[in-house]
Specification:
The chain is an alpha/beta fold. Helices cover 42% and strands 11% of the residues. Strands 1-2-4-3 form a 4-stranded parallel sheet, with helices on both faces. The N terminus is likely disordered.
Length: 363
C-alpha cells in the first residue's frame, strides 16, 4: 500500500485509468488533453471541504494555561494546534477538553474545571473570526456555513461534580456539553444511586457522557442507563492495543446498539507510532461498532516533544489519514459519517432526548 505520509504520494493504482493510444480519429490539435485521475489526497481534500472533521478531543486549553498569551492565530511551533493548521486539516468543529492532568487531587477537580472553562471562553473571545462557541448541533452547522470552527466545551471530569447535580447544571449554564465520568467515585465498577441521577440529569440537559477511561463494566452500565447516545472522545481499539483509555469490543458493540460514538485518538500509546497504525484502529472500530458509530478525537493541543504517529503530528495531517482510508477502500459515505455526520447525529440525538425529558416533565 502506498505510503500516504508523504504529500507527494502518487495515486493508488485502483484510481489510475488507462488511456488508450490515440487512433486516427483522435489525432488533432483540437483534441482535449487527457484528464489525470484524482489522487487519494485530492479526493480527501474534496471530501473534507464538504464534510469537515468534528474532532472530539483537543487539550490546547490546558496547555495554554501555562502560556496564556500564546497566539494561535498564526502558525507557531510552541504547540501543535493553531487556527491555520486546524483549517489546513479541514477541522470544522472542535471539542476542547477541560480534563485535569492525571493525578489532580479530587478536592481540586471542581476549581480546576472552572478555571479551564474560564480559559476556554477567554480563548474563544480572543479569536472570534476563527472560533465560535457552539452549544447545539445547529450551532455546529451554522459555524461551518460562516467559515468558523464550532467550539464545544468539554469534557469536564465527573469528579468535579462533588456529589452535586447543581454543579452539573452550572457547567451546562456555562456552555459545557460533555461530561467524563471516568475517575468519579459514582462511576467505578458500577453506577451508584447518585451516578444514576447524574446520567438522568445529563440526559435532561443534553450533556453528552464520555466513557473514555471508564472500566468496561462502568462504560456498559452508563451506556445502558443513558437514554441518549454515549461517546468515547479519545479512544482506540483495545483488541489491537491494550490501554486504559481504549475501548474493548463489548463496549464497541454497546455503542453500536445505542447509536453512540467511538472517536479515534492519535496518541501513540493508544494506537502505535504511524498513520497506518491509526488507520488499523479505525478499521477495527468501524468493523465492530459500525460506520455510524466511529469518529475522530485526535488529542492534539500539546507542546513540542509529545510523541505522535508519523504523518499525524498536528491537525494539518487529517487529509493524509482520509487519503489512507480511501486507499483502503472506505466508501466516501462512510468517511463523511466519520468526519462530520456521526458527531452531528449524536448531538442531535442528545438534544432530542433533552426535549423529550422536558415534555414529560410538563406533560
Amino acid at each position: 500500500m502506498a505510503d500516504l505520509q508523504d504529500e507527494q504520494t502518487p495515486a493508488h493504482p485502483a484510481y489510475a485509468a488507462e488511456t488508450p493510444p490515440p487512433g486516427p480519429a483522435s489525432v488533432g490539435a483540437a483534441d482535449p488533453p487527457p484528464t489525470a485521475p484524482a489522487s487519494a489526497l485530492d479526493r480527501a481534500a474534496a471530501l473534507l471541504s464538504l464534510h469537515p472533521v468534528a474532532d472530539g478531543h483537543n487539550t490546547l486549553v490546558r496547555t495554554l494555561r501555562q502560556s496564556p498569551y500564546h497566539d494561535i492565530g498564526t502558525p507557531d511551533t510552541g504547540v501543535d494546534t493553531d487556527i491555520p493548521r486546524l483549517r489546513a486539516g479541514g477541522v470544522g468543529a472542535q471539542f476542547w477538553s477541560l480534563l485535569p492532568p492525571r493525578g489532580t487531587a479530587p478536592d481540586h477537580a471542581l476549581a480546576d474545571a472552572l478555571d479551564q472553562v474560564d480559559a476556554a471562553l477567554s480563548l474563544l473571545r480572543r479569536y472570534p473570526d476563527g472560533l465560535c462557541l457552539a452549544l447545539t448541533a445547529d450551532d455546529m452547522a451554522d459555524a461551518r456555513n460562516r467559515g468558523r470552527i464550532a467550539s464545544f466545551l468539554g469534557p469536564v471530569p465527573g469528579s468535579a461534580l462533588t456529589d452535586s447535580l447543581a454543579a452539573l447544571r452550572a457547567f451546562h449554564a456555562l456552555g459545557v456539553r460533555v461530561l467524563a465520568p471516568a475517575g468519579a467515585p459514582w462511576a467505578a465498577e458500577d453506577l451508584t444511586p447518585f451516578g444514576h441521577e447524574v446520567v438522568r440529569e445529563a440526559n435532561r440537559l443534553g450533556v453528552l457522557l464520555d466513557v473514555t477511561g471508564c472500566t468496561p463494566a462502568a462504560a456498559l452500565r452508563i451506556a445502558g442507563a443513558s437514554k441518549a447516545p454515549v461517546i468515547a472522545t479519545h479512544t482506540a481499539a483495545d483488541a489491537l492495543t491494550p490501554h486504559p483509555d481504549n475501548t474493548d469490543d463489548d463496549v464497541l458493540l454497546a455503542l453500536r446498539a445505542a447509536g453512540g460514538l467511538a472517536m479515534a485518538t492519535f496518541d501513540t500509546g493508544q494506537t502505535g507510532d504511524s498513520l497506518h497504525a491509526v488507520a488499523d484502529h479505525l478499521d477495527h472500530l468501524r468493523a465492530v461498532a459500525g460506520p455510524g458509530s466511529v469518529g475522530l478525537g485526535a488529542s492534539f493541543g500539546t507542546e513540542p516533544g509529545t510523541r505522535r504517529p508519523t504523518g499525524l503530528t498536528d491537525p494539518s495531517g487529517y487529509p493524509r489519514l482520509i487519503a489512507e482510508l480511501l486507499e483502503r477502500g472506505w466508501p466516501e459515505t462512510d468517511i463523511a459519517q466519520l468526519t462530520w455526520g456521526n458527531a452531528l447525529r449524536v448531538l442531535r440525538a442528545a438534544e432530542f432526548t433533552a426535549r423529550a425529558a422536558a415534555h414529560r416533565r410538563t406533560g
